[in-house]
């Protein structure tokens, strides 16, 4: 474990906790994309299958369970909670997210480290996570006023994989870890998708004004 | 096997 990976995991954990707090306290999921949340459930289920087959550490196991539980909980709130589901921007969250699943799976069948079920699903989860934020970013452009909690949630979510990029650089040089091209390229694509959000988020933070993405 | 990257990350 290195400081970059720990910071990345904490940023990721904080983002999901922030989102859950926003939904629970405001009883609203306005501005949040259900499509992105559902893609994240698929990402975590496909990636954390080794939860039952390999024990790395208490930390690793607990964090996997937390990410699976929180992502399922958020989808439950947005789909079934009687008050929260009324606040879902159904008409704005129109990205057909099931469209991205088959290409990611097909790519995982073609490009992977090893052709086994676990490895292909793990690779699929990396490709899917790289594009999972798209519905949320598109919804943001359609949302007039983005509340602070949502902005912070997306910033932390983007920051986590950016920190993982630093973690991979650290591991490659310091631990002489072998090249992880699939993780590296997926992580780069994922972080690049946040580029313009980061720009407008930091700009709004510097000028102390409301976060606004150009349509 | 050693060639597979460690899955110790989240």
TrEMBL record, chain A:
<keyword id="KW-0813">Transport</keyword>
<keyword id="KW-0256">Endoplasmic reticulum</keyword>
<dbReference type="GO" id="GO:0015031">
    <property type="term" value="P:protein transport"/>
</dbReference>
<feature type="transmembrane region" description="Helical">
    <location>
        <begin position="121"/>
        <end position="140"/>
    </location>
</feature>
<dbReference type="GO" id="GO:0046923">
    <property type="term" value="F:ER retention sequence binding"/>
</dbReference>
<feature type="transmembrane region" description="Helical">
    <location>
        <begin position="55"/>
        <end position="77"/>
    </location>
</feature>
<dbReference type="InterPro" id="IPR000133">
    <property type="entry name" value="ER_ret_rcpt"/>
</dbReference>
<keyword id="KW-1133">Transmembrane helix</keyword>
<dbReference type="GO" id="GO:0005789">
    <property type="term" value="C:endoplasmic reticulum membrane"/>
</dbReference>
<keyword id="KW-0472">Membrane</keyword>
<dbReference type="Pfam" id="PF00810">
    <property type="entry name" value="ER_lumen_recept"/>
</dbReference>
<keyword id="KW-0653">Protein transport</keyword>
<feature type="transmembrane region" description="Helical">
    <location>
        <begin position="182"/>
        <end position="202"/>
    </location>
</feature>
<keyword id="KW-0675">Receptor</keyword>
<dbReference type="GO" id="GO:0006621">
    <property type="term" value="P:protein retention in ER lumen"/>
</dbReference>
<keyword id="KW-0812">Transmembrane</keyword>
<keyword id="KW-0931">ER-Golgi transport</keyword>
<dbReference type="GO" id="GO:0016192">
    <property type="term" value="P:vesicle-mediated transport"/>
</dbReference>
<feature type="transmembrane region" description="Helical">
    <location>
        <begin position="98"/>
        <end position="115"/>
    </location>
</feature>
<feature type="transmembrane region" description="Helical">
    <location>
        <begin position="152"/>
        <end position="170"/>
    </location>
</feature>
<comment type="similarity">
    <text>Belongs to the ERD2 family.</text>
</comment>
<protein>
    <recommendedName>
        <fullName>ER lumen protein-retaining receptor</fullName>
    </recommendedName>
</protein>
């Amino acid at each position: 474990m290195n400081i970059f990976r720990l910071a990345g995991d904490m940023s990721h954990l904080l983002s999901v906790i922030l989102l859950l707090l926003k939904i629970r306290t405001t009883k609203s999921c306005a501005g949040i994309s259900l499509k992105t949340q559902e893609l994240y459930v698929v990402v975590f289920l496909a990636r954390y299958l080794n939860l039952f087959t390999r024990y790395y550490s208490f930390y690793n196991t607990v964090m996997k369970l937390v990410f699976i539980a929180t992502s399922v909980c958020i989808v439950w709130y947005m789909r079934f909670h009687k008050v929260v589901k009324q606040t879902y921007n159904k008409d704005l969250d129109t990205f057909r997210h099931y469209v991205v699943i088959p290409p990611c799976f097909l790519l995982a069948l073609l490009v992977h480290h090893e052709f086994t079920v676990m490895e292909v699903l793990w690779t699929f989860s990396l490709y899917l996570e790289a594009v999972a934020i798209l519905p949320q970013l598109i919804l943001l452009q359609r949302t007039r006023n983005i509340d602070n909690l949502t902005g912070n949630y997306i910033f932390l979510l983007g920051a986590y994989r950016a920190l993982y990029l630093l973690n991979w650089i650290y591991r490659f040089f310091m631990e002489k870890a072998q090249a992880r091209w699939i993780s590296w390229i997926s992580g780069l694509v994922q972080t690049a998708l946040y580029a313009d959000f980061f720009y407008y988020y930091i700009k709004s933070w510097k000028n102390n004004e409301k976060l606004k993405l150009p349509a | 096997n050693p060639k597979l990257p460690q899955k110790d990350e989240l």
